[in-house]
Amino acid sequence: MLLPCLVAIASVAQSTTTAFVGVNVIPMDRERVLSNQTVLIVDGKISRIGASAEVRVPAGAKAIDCKGKYLIPGLVDMHNHLFADSPEIADDYAIQELRVMLANGVTTSRLMNGLPFQLTLRDRIAKGELDLPNLSVSSPQLVGSERWATAEPNSKLVTTPEQARAAVQEFKKAGYEAVKMTMDIKDRAVYDAIMDECAKQGLPGIGHVDPAIDANHAIEKGQQIEHLDAYLEAILKDDSPIKTSVTQGGLFRKENWASLDHIDEAKLAAIAKKTADAKVYVAPSLAFLKMIYGNQITQAETRALPDFRFMPKSKVAEWDRALGIIYPRIAASEAHRKKFMRYRNELVRQIHANGGKIMAGSDSPDVYLFSGFSMHRELQCLVEAGLSLYAALEAGTRIPAEFLKASGRYGQVKSGLQADLVLLDANPLANIANTQKIAGVMLRGKWFEKPALAKMLDEAATEAGKLP
User: Fold this and answer.
1) What's the pLDDT score for residue 182?
2) What is the CB neighbour count within 10 angstroms for residue 327?
């Protein structure tokens, strides 16, 4: 249960008007910049957007001089976890993690391993009690083997269609907003029962795809796919001598990396088009997989990351040990690691080029990567994959809001929407790295200037230092 100290960060509802004056607005309705605008925020919502010469700032309003700055919607990270999910860390440590996200311009987070305390936190935020990012909470993990049920405490084992349907019904009743699948769901009858019951319950089926299910089948069933799971297996040549590739556990098998020498470019193009045509949303987690498996980050490099000061000591020790085991076990050549990144990038590029839906999801915190910071890396990786600067920004704002059925609340800078906004010192449509040049964040109409955001980060780092 969340501790009473949450009350200490509760916001006080009050009627306020804020004006962003002289700002360049990137509304995210289409690729454009509205120059020298005044944006009025009244009682937590965007009230008016217009040329500064034409929009009068009401008496008593808080006016923010935004000359030379850019206003974008708050970022939406579609794949987050929490250190607070761990039994060893108190539930209310989630406050610090969500504040780090907020300080990085993330105003909405989708949590991908649901727990009851997250539902409580989500509802308190929605009521306006807490100045933390909006939350969408997915279910506990569905797994298909005793091995994974034992390894992951917050999971539910489903090995029959009946169990699968009952689990989906249970998650719906509990208030989770999506059904998350992870490891070893290999039986199509079980998988199909999950997806069918999700449709009946009005919940999206999301998450991993086991190669035994096949990415093509998951696309046909309309699953929202994380990590591009099972895509590399689906694009192997028919005569490939290796039939398994580097999805999920395949990443840890040295022999599987050679499968990347047997990719069928025609199959790649076909599955990318199929994904787009089926209107399947994909969150590829490019940054995480590139950093750990593609580039094989060194221990020295991890210590130089801006995220590092937020890492619990026990997690750092665990990850140091893990990479000391994983990298020698994989022993993937640089050539194969480059192919791994190239084919994943090309899948993303072609899915988008065909009109498909790409969403930014950082899959953080994990292996030295902290939430918030990792969102900016993901946007950068989307650009490196071949998306335009606008398309990458869209993947972190408007498209996730669309998937979450929240387009009427956030995801654009538009009159009538919730005032979840990020003020930047430079134009992200000139360089996506400019999303990191944050001058301030507005969350549901409450304004946090740069010094306040820096204080959030410092306090979160201090609290992280107290963790085991």
Assistant:
1) 97
2) 15
- Tell me the C-alpha distance between 232 and 385, whole Å: 16
Could you tell me what percent of the chain has a pLDDT over 90? 94
> Phi, psi (5° rounding) for residue 280?
-85, 130
pLDDT at 16: 87
Per the CB < 8 A criterion, the answer to whether 176 and 188 are in contact is no
Q: Are 285 and 225 in contact (CB under 8 A)?
A: no
450-465 vs 94-103: helix crossing angle, rounded to 10? 150
Cα atoms found within 13 Å of the Cα of residue 437, Cβ hemisphere only: 15
User: What sign does the dihedral 376-381-387-388 (CA atoms) show?
Assistant: positive
- The angle formed by the CA atoms of residues 243, 246 and 248, to the nearest 5 degrees, is 115
What is each CA distance from 209 to 59, 62, 228, 256, 307, in whole angstroms? 56, 49, 8, 17, 29
pLDDT at site 153: 87
Instruction: Please give the model's pTM, rounded to 2 decimal places.
Output: 0.95
Separation between Cα atoms, residue 132 and residue 244, nearest integer Å: 42
∠ CA 14-5-367, nearest 5°, is: 105
pLDDT by residue (tens digit) across 371-417?
Answer: 999 999 999 999 999 999 999 999 999 999 999 999 999 999 999 99
Determine which helix (DSSP H) or strand (DSSP E) holds 448, and give its type and residue range: strand 446-449
Coil, strand or helix at 422: strand
Q: Which of 392, 370, 394 is nearest to 380 (CA)?
A: 392
Report strand pairing: 357-358 vs 75-80. Answer: unpaired
Residue ranges of alpha helices (H) inside 32-155 are 94-103, 116-126, 146-151
Identify whether the C-beta of residue 359 lies closer than 8 Å to the C-beta of residue 395.
yes
The token pair that represents 90 in the structure block: 């108190």
Location of structure tokens 């964040």: 441
On whether the CB atoms of residues 134 and 108 are closer than 8 A, the answer is yes
Which pLDDT belongs to residue 1?
A: 44
Q: Which residue, among 38, 84, 85, has the nearest Cα to 58 in the 3D structure?
A: 38
Q: Which residues of the chain have pLDDT under 70?
A: 1-15
Cis before residue 400, ω within 30 degrees of 0? no
CA dihedral sign, ordered 46, 50, 53, 54: negative
User: Token digits for 251?
Assistant: 């990443």
In whole angstroms, give the CA distance from residue 332 to residue 251: 9
In the numeric block, the tokens 């960060």 are attached to 9
Amino acid in the structure at residue 319: W
Q: Give CA 424 to chain center in angstroms.
A: 20
